[in-house]
Amino acid sequence: MDKLKEQASLAIREQLDQIAKVAVDMQYALQSDVWRPYEKSGYTKSLRDSGYHFSYLAESLAADDPALFLEYVAWAKVLFVSLNFPPRALTTALDCMKQALEQTLDPSLAAAASSYIDAASGHLAQAPENIESFISPTSPLYELSKNYLGFLLRGDRQAASQFVLDEVAQGVSVKDIYLHVFQPCQQELGRLWQTNQISVAQEHFSTAVTQLVMSQLYAHIFASQKNGYRLVATSVGGELHEIGMRMVADFLEMEGWDTYYLGANTPPESILRALEERQADVLAISATISYHVGKVKDLIDHVRSSPACSSVRVMVGGYPFNIAKDLWKVVGADGYARNAQEAVLAASRLVEEAR
Q1: Is 260 helix (H, G, I), strand (E, B) or coil?
Q2: Which CATH superfamily is domain 224-354 in?
Q3: Which of 7, 20, 167, 255 sits CB 3.0–4.6 Å from 172 for a disulfide?
């Protein structure tokens, strides 16, 4: 771990509001023609978004891996294009971030952080302006995914539910529904929101529908013969996108594990108690947003410091861990999986190694 980057990350977090405001004020002064039309509410949103920019930067520095920040900036480019901001809006935002760091941090810390901003600026030109759909004619179960997404976007919860239940009744496996219908549809919903084609309300409604349909499939999921292994699964505090971890728990349940899914926002003390009471072999933790990776590390530290949890193996997953390949080691986990299917293999390997 690079100590200078770690210190820069901590300094950014400690002065986040101040640094974000310096950057926004600077950008408003440089690009008043872009931002003036948004008035006071726009300034408030700009402060919030600047906080996000610096939070992603801080997390990337803490992980000693620029990939997290580069990926975020590429994501932001697509968002800015969809909102019809001029190309210079994002490049100027990055420049203002550098200057804000230089004004507020110790020079050595500002330089360490600025190196990641420089890398992002260089990466920006080659980053795409749009993202291809996650549902294409070459995708497995394409027609099912397309039809299910259509029901979601039309707001027809009952039709979406019945459609999936009918497909399962006709022989489509629950695992295939999870991997080739629910997963790409969730990714596509995120893309549609990012490109300003659906609202936050539509995305949240659709996610709630999929969670409902998943619960309606539990008769198929919990019918598996148990193998004696136990899993506790959770998403770190503040995570709204919990479906991925729920899929992991359900896949392991179908493989015979006894799973205990806690959802998000569960206090660390309650997670430790669940691990002890359930005599868990594995704790699975998910983070889908990069600036929540620190919370994953904090939770793992809690587990490691508990004598009652000394035998628990920790597996992590989620978008940031797919971007930065060694991030799971940085947070102190025992293993990592890219998706629910890989999680079955990873969890099994961890308990075999512990024997």
Answers
A1: strand
A2: Cobalamin-binding domain (3.40.50.280)
A3: 167
Q: Does domain 3-124 have CATH number 1.10.10.10?
A: no
Q: pLDDT per residue over 296-328, tens digit each?
A: 999 999 999 999 999 999 999 999 999 998 999
Per CATH, the number for 142-219 is 1.10.1240.10
Q: Is the dihedral of CA 324, 295, 181, 259 positive or negative?
A: positive
Instruction: Tell whether the torsion through CA atoms of 330, 333, 337 and 342 is positive or negative.
Output: positive
What CA–CA distance (Å, rounded) separates 112 from 107? 9
59 in Cβ contact with 293 (< 8 Å)? yes
243 contacts 274 by C-beta, under 8 angstroms: no
Residue 311 burial (C-beta neighbours within 10 Å; 0-12, 13-18, 19+): exposed
Q: How high is the mean pLDDT of the chain?
A: 94
| pTM of the predicted model as reported, rounded to 2 decimal places | 0.91
**Tokens for 179?**
């991997």
**Residues 349 and 334 sit within 8 Å (Cβ to Cβ):** no
